[in-house]
Amino acid sequence: MELILALAIGVLGGSGVWLLMRPRTFQLIIGLSLLSYAVNLFIFSMGRFPIGAPPILEPGSSGDPATFADPLPQSLVLTAIVIGFATTALFLVVMLAARGLTGGDHVDGRPPR
Amino acid sequence: MTGWQQHLMVLPIALPLIVGAMMIALDEQRSRLKAAMGIASILVMLGVGIALALQAHAGGTAIGVYRLGNWPTSFGIVLMLDRLSALLLVLTSLLGLAALLYALPRWQRMGAHFHALLQFQLMGLNGAFLTGDLFNLFVFFEVLLAASYGLALHGSGVARVKAGLHYISINLAASLLFLIGVSMIYGVAGTLNMADLAARIPSMPAANRPLLEAGAAILGIAFLAKAAMWPLGFWLMPTYAAASPPSAAIFSMMSKVGIYAVLRLVLLLFGPEAGASAGFGGTWVMAGGIATIAFGAVSVLATQDLPRLAGASVLISSGTLLAAVGAGQAAVTGGALFYLVSSALAIGAFFLLVELLERGREVGADVLAVTLEAFGDGEEEDVEDDAAGVPIPATMAVLGACFLCCALLLAGLPPLPGFIAKFAMLTGILNPAGLSEGPALVPPGGWALLIALIVSGFATVVAMARAGIRNIWAASDRAVPRVGAIEIAPVLLLLFVCLGMTAAAGPVMRYMQATAAALHAPQEMVQQVLGRGP
C-alpha cells in the first residue's frame, strides 16, 4: 500500500513538474492539476494508513489511536481540493483572456525567436 | 478584555468578508454606494486596528486569544493578537484606504468588482496577520492571493494579463509547496497550531527533527517566494509595474505578508528553546536577504521607467527585512519593524505617485488607451476629463515634493523615518550585545548586511535623483498632468503618516522594540495561547 501510494505521488508529481516547465498554457494548467493531485495524496498520507479504520470514535471506545484514522489530514485534503479547484478555474479564465489578447497559447505571449 | 471587546479581534476578518459579499450582490453601476461602503468598512477596520494596537501595547505581555467556536486550543482554530499583528492591521487598513481613495475618480470604473476584490484582499491580509494556525494561514493566503489575482488584472490589457499569467502560476506552485510543508509538519509534530508547535518542538526526538526541518524549509520557500527573495522573486517587478496603481499600492503590503510569516515562524518555532533546531534557517534567510538587496540595487539602477523603479524598491525593502530577520537579534528586529512600516507606506505612496507623474507622458496615455479599448465601451471617455475632480494648484510643485519625500524614505535619508529605521538596524548590528555592553565582536553576516544596507541606500539615491531630474526638472516642455485633489490626497495621507512617525519617533520606536522583544521571547505567548497562562 505504501509503495503504491509513494509511486502514485512520485509519478503524478514528476509529470506535473515536467509539464510545468513546458511553454504552452494548456501544459501548464495540466501540470498544476497533476501536482495538486500529488500534493493532496501526500497530505492524505501524512495521517498514516490504518486500513479499514473509520475517522470517527466508536461509541464507548477509549480513543486508542490504532483503532481510528486521523480525521484532520482528511479535512485538510478536502479544503485543499476545494481551494485548488477554485484557483484552477480562475487560472483557466486568465489563460482564456491571455489567449484572446495575445492570440497565442505561449506562456510569454509569443514564442521566443 | 470582557464582553463585546473580546469579539473586536474577529472584526477585521468578518467585516470585509460581509461587506465584500454584499458588494458582489450590488449592480456594477452603483459604484458610489460601493465606494461609500468600502470607505466605511476600511475606516472601521482602521479604528479597530488602532484600538487593538493600543490595547496590545497597554497589556504588556498579555496577548489577545480568540478561540473560534470556543473550542480548546488543541482542537479548534485560534486567532491571536499581539503587538505585531495589531501594527500590521493598522498598516493594512491605511494602505487599503489610500488605494480605495485613489481609485475613486478613475480606476474603479476600469474593471469589474474593484471594491469587492479590495475588501477580500484586506480580509485575507488581516486574517493572515491574526491567525495562530498554520493551515488557517494557508486558507487566508489563498483568500488574499485569489483577490490579488483579480486586482493584478484590474483594468485588463495585454501587459497585465501576461504578467498576471506568470504571477498566478508562480503563486499556485508556491501554494502547493505551502501544503507540502504544512502536511509534513503535521505528520511529524501532530499539530498545526503555532503555539502548540513551539511547545512541542523542544521535546521532539532527534529522529524526527530532519523531517520537521525539511517541512519548515519547504514552507519557508513558499513564504520567501511571496516575499520575493532572490532567486524566487523574478515575478515581482513585471507584475507590480503592470498592475493598476491602486492595486500596486495594496500589493506593497502583500509582499510583507511573506516576511511576516517568516518572522513569526522563525522566532516562534526555532527560537533559542528549540533545542537542536534552534536558529534553523536564520543564515539562509539572511544570505537570501542580502542577495535580494544586491539584486534590488542593481535593478533600481538599471530600470528606466518609474513603475519598474517602484517594483525594484519593493525588492530592496523585502531583502532588507529578510536579512534583518535572519540576523536574529531583538534590536535589529525592532529597527526592521520600523523599516517595514515606513517602507510599506513609502512604496504604496510611490506607486500612486508614479501614475500621476506618468500621466502627462505619451507612454501612460498609450496604456490607458489600450485599457479603455480592451475593457471600456467608450462610455468612460467622456467621464475622463472631469473625473479627476478639482485640479490642485501648483501641481508640479506638489508632485515634486511628494516625490522628494518618497525618495528620502526609500533611500533612508534623514529626517524621514527611513533613516531612523536604518539607523536603528545598524545600531543593532554593530552592538550585538546591547549598547551598554560596550564593543563586541560583530559577526561577518552583520558586516555584509551593513554594507548591503549602505550600498542599496546609495543606489536608491542615485536612481531616484535620476528619475526625479528626468520626470520633474527636465521635462518643462510637456503638459502639466491634471491631478485631482482626491487623487493626491491618499499620497499625502501616506506621507503624512510617515512624517508623523518622524515626529513621534520615540514612542513608535518603543512600540517596535517592545514588539521585537516579545517576538524574541515567545514562551509567554505560547502559554497564553495554550490556555495555561494567567
Give your account of this protein's structure.
The complex is a heterodimer of chains A (113) and B (534). With 113 residues, chain A is mostly helical. Chain A has helices at 2-20, 25-45, 71-102. Chain A starts with a helix and ends in an 11-residue tail after the last helix. The model of chain A has no long low-confidence stretch (mean pLDDT 86). Helices cover 72% and strands 1% of the residues of chain B. Chain B has 21 helices and two strands. In chain B, strands 1-2 form a two-stranded antiparallel ribbon. In chain B, helix 6 (158-189) runs antiparallel to helix 8 (209-226), helix 7 (194-200) packs across helix 21 and helix 13 (330-358) crosses helix 20. At the A-B interface, helix 2 and helix 3 of A face helix 5 and helix 6 of B.
The largest pleated sheet of chain B is described as:
2 strands, antiparallel
Number of helices of chain A: 3
Overall residue-averaged pLDDT value of chain A: 86
In total, how many beta strands of chain A? 0
Strand content of chain B: under 5%
Sheet/helix structural class of chain B: mainly alpha
The SS-based structural class of chain A is mainly alpha
Strand order of the largest sheet of chain B: 1-2
What characteristic shape of chain B results from the CA principal axes? Answer: globular
Order of helices and strands of chain B: HHEEHHHHHHHHHHHHHHHHHHH
Q: What level of helicity do the residues of chain B show?
A: over 70%
- Catalogue the unreliable spans of chain B: 362-366, 376-387
Biggest sheet statistics of chain A: none
Output the number of helix runs of chain B.
Answer: 21
**Termini of chain A, distance in Å?**
48 Å
> Which pair of protein chains has the largest interface, and what are the residue counts?
A-B, 31 and 30 residues
